[in-house]
Predict the structure.
Amino acid sequence: MKCKDILEKLSEYIDGELDPMLCQDLERHMKDCHPCLVFVNTLKKTITLYKYAGSEPLPKEVHLRLHDYLKKECKGS
Amino acid sequence: MSMRMLRNQEDAEDALQETFLQVYRGLKGFEGRSTFSTWLFRLATNVCLMKIRHRETEPAKLLPLEEYIPRPEEGGRPQIQDWPDKPEEVLLNKESREKMLEALEKLPAEYRAVFVLRDIEGFSNSEVGEALGISVAAVKSRLHRARLTLRGMLSSYFQRKAF
């Protein structure tokens, strides 16, 4: 398996959707290829950071304005 | 979700209001063929995509896949460096969040929508496909390109924070 092949499969690997045989090939490659190992780590961190950053609740004032807007728009309908 | 798609707070709030108005008006027609949340996010995504199209800005171009291949180490110096192993709450200060939103905004809208729904909102590939009207294969392909592009855009920033 070459670096290019690894690159194409990374998301499936991270999501646990990769065929187990390919998974083994990929992990064997990463043992000897530091750039690919770092690449996988940083790709995983990208996903984790966005997931974490995205878990903020809706601000209370936005919630209230939405409520007021819907009340006004839906009045009498 | 609308904030992450549109970044601009005013636009995001408009999109939120418009989405819920559409939900209210369309509720009688909701046939339960998809889950309520998939339906809600489909409406929200469509509202956001419409707003993005109206902005008339040049969509970002994604690099060919080959451009992302990690280069082998040369002269003993690694070309690719890891990001810090700090907990998310330490890494995610205001500046980092801003950088991440900036990067997300640079993604073409159809890639951004997939990334937001799948990786941030936590929908499955098939739910994202259903919400956007595309195949699961297209979801996977767009998601992969979106992730690679975001990683690439954030790399130099987070590598610096490792030291």
